[in-house]
Design a protein that fits this description.
Number of strands of chain A: 11
Helix content of chain B: under 10%
Radius of gyration of chain A: 13 Å
Distance between the termini of chain A: 36 Å
Strand content of chain A: over 45%
Oligomer: heterodimer
Number of helices of chain A: 0
Largest interface: A-B, 24 and 22 residues
Distance between the termini of chain B: 40 Å
Strand content of chain B: over 45%
Order of helices and strands of chain A: EEEEEEEEEEE
Order of helices and strands of chain B: EEEEEEEEEEE
Radius of gyration of chain B: 14 Å
Number of helices of chain B: 0
Structural class of chain A: mainly beta
Largest sheet of chain A: 7 strands, mixed
Structural class of chain B: mainly beta
Shape of chain A: globular
């Protein structure tokens, strides 16, 4: 089992550009979560999916953020346009159900300059 | 609002000693709790979990205690090793009707002194 796979590991982009983060969950996991981690705010849940359907996106900061899960093995988090305050580490996690520990990916460190 | 918080941001212990990391939660509806370990440059790693119908659970060198009366969670690490140095997060999952995503505390940085 390769675990949760995220790409890219690092992303540096200029303000105003579109950024797409990618995630491949563990096979058989029905839940997928996107988190953002900053020093000031810690780990924040942005959105989560159950069986590819978005369930709760109340943590998405604003309309510049969008997430999709076209199939059970792939999800994207898109920021358009990006801003310096979006700089953070973005984690994807998956779980087979809500009552089991989530497995996190290694994260994508995003820097917007 | 309701949140998960930690008492101590940094904890330094001697190698071989036992450590205790504490966490306070305020959501009485939470029914599932997890401790995660995060090393520099890596994602959070699952350590141990506990459900609200239990007050203690043991793993390998780790024990989680849950006190629902005072809404307190602790992680005990026995015979600490250099590899235990990391940031530790407690997380809660609210009960039925609440969001399914975990809510994380701010974290405690555990430093193991040689």
């Amino acid at each position: 089992d390769a675990g949760v796979i995220q790409s890219p590991r690092h992303e540096v982009t200029e303000m105003g550009q579109e950024v797409t983060l990618r995630c491949k969950p563990i096979s058989g996991h029905d839940y997928l979560f996107w988190y953002r981690q900053t020093m000031m705010r810690g780990l924040e849940l942005l959105i989560y999916f159950n069986n590819n359907v978005p369930i709760d996106d109340s943590g998405m900061p604003e309309d510049r953020f969008s997430a999709k899960m076209p199939n059970a093995s792939f999800s994207t988090l898109k920021i358009q346009p990006s801003e310096p305050r979006d700089s953070a580490v973005y984690f994807c996690a998956s779980s087979r159900d809500r009552d089991h520990g989530y497995t996190f990916g290694s994260g994508t460190r995003l820097t917007v300059v | 609002g309701e949140s998960v918080g930690l008492h101590l941001p940094t904890l330094s212990v001697q190698e071989g000693d036992n450590s205790i990391i504490n966490c306070a939660y305020s959501n009485s509806a939470s029914d599932y709790f997890i401790w995660y370990k995060q090393e520099s440059g890596k994602g959070p790693q699952f350590i141990i979990d506990i459900r609200s119908n239990m007050d203690k659970r043991q793993g390998q060198r780790v024990t989680v205690l849950l006190n629902k009366t005072v809404k307190h969670l602790s992680l005990q690490i026995a015979a600490t090793q250099p590899g235990d140095s990391a940031v530790y997060f407690c997380a809660e999952n609210r009960g039925e009707g609440g969001a399914d995503g975990l809510t994380f505390g701010k974290g405690t940085h555990l430093i193991i002194q040689p």
